[in-house]
Amino acid sequence: MRRLAVATLDGNWEHDHTVPSRTLYPHQWSWDSAFIAIGLATARPDRAWRELRTLLAAQWADGRVPHIVFNPAPPIGSYFPGPGFWDSARAPGAPAAATSGIVQPPVHALAAWLAYRRTPSERSRTELAWLYPRLVAQQRYLTGRRDVGGAGLACLVHPWESGLDNSPAWDPPLATVPADEAVLRAYRRHDTAHADAAQRPTDLDYARYVALVDAYRAGRYGDDGLAGRHPFLVECPLFNTALGLAEHALAAIARAVGADPGPHRERAARITATLVDRLYDPATGAFHPRDLRTGRLVPARTALGLVPLALPDLPPRQVATVLAEACSPRFGLAARMDRPLPSHDRTAPDFEPLRYWRGPSWLNLDWLLWRGLRTHHRLDLAAGLRASMVELVATAGCHEYFHPDTGAGLGSPAFGWTAALLLDVLADESAVD
């Protein structure tokens, strides 16, 4: 399995970064690259640092790390939405490289710290020192310009920023986004040419995604006045968990490069406290996105609600109730799991075992939860989840996602972060923290 994972990453290497897959994703994706760097650190450490450097070299002047950095090699029109659609070059502070204008969960500081822990050399310390101010700038952008709610959490302006593009958690805030499916006639979706349409977002959802990019691009990707003009504004539990984890990682990185870790520890504590205050629902015992347009929590019970368990300073009450939710029939976490962990409540009427983020199992969500279980000393549950992750790939290969009942591979084959995170969990039973 290790050879399979390394071969997958080698096959997806593109001179200075890794593409998520050769079939559907021909460019560099932000949080994919962070997860991929974690796995590369176990097998190709030089590439792990190159991966992160390439991505952060395309950082915007305001600190945002774009969710796509476009590779100029693929033919124009080979991927939608491509660089011409984003038109980022006209935005103030955009880099020389063609990029998208939105972001993804900030798991990059955690990736850099884990890569350093795998290979603690002078070269690695030099890489950390180069990355550190850029990672700090990323956090400053997210906790500053994206704090639309005013409480200290980052706000999403598009479901793509969550990483869980098509989750049922976005259905209520998306429902108010005006979109005409005819808008897609001007474009050509490429995802449904490489994967069954039953596994991908619907045309109506895609039309809404396009409408949201249109709205954000019209303001040249500026964040001033978002509350008054943008139709989708949501505080996400996973995104803000990653924000808190980044501050914990930056505190460790700061120590390694001779900076002050104190401010990072303080910000990490504030993010966790605010996450509990704003996104925790005592009625469900889990976390939910907050729609800033309505002020209400989104009721869907998705895997987003479990991910805050990855925070080391999550209070004991929330640890206990999130664990109860994870172990319930909705998700089925156990020391011996009979089915993979789904991305959405498997008892819900809108559970779809095939469709993108609306039910299938994903290794990156499993990996985040696995880390949280070990952090909070639930080694029995961590071992059960780890075994489930390994079995998925052993049975179906390094697929993008998996059927939450049968474990069959879905989406793109030879998928980068699946291979990378498998390498991390295979590296040893108690991978470095």
Automatic annotation (TrEMBL):
**Statement: the UniProt record of this protein carries the keyword Membrane:** no
Which SUPFAM superfamilies does the entry mention?
A: Six-hairpin glycosidases (SSF48208)
Q: Which UniProt keywords apply?
A: Glycosidase, Hydrolase
Mannosylglycerate hydrolase MGH1-like glycoside hydrolase domain location is 25-418
In terms of superkingdom, the source organism counts as: Bacteria
A matching Pfam family: MGH1-like_GH
What family, per the record? Belongs to the glycosyl hydrolase 63 family.
Task: Write down the PANTHER family for this protein, in alphabetical order.
Answer: MANNOSYL-OLIGOSACCHARIDE GLUCOSIDASE
What is the protein name given in its UniProt record?
MGH1-like glycoside hydrolase domain-containing protein
Species of origin reads Micromonospora rubida
The top of its lineage is: Bacteria, Bacillati, Actinomycetota, Actinomycetes, Micromonosporales
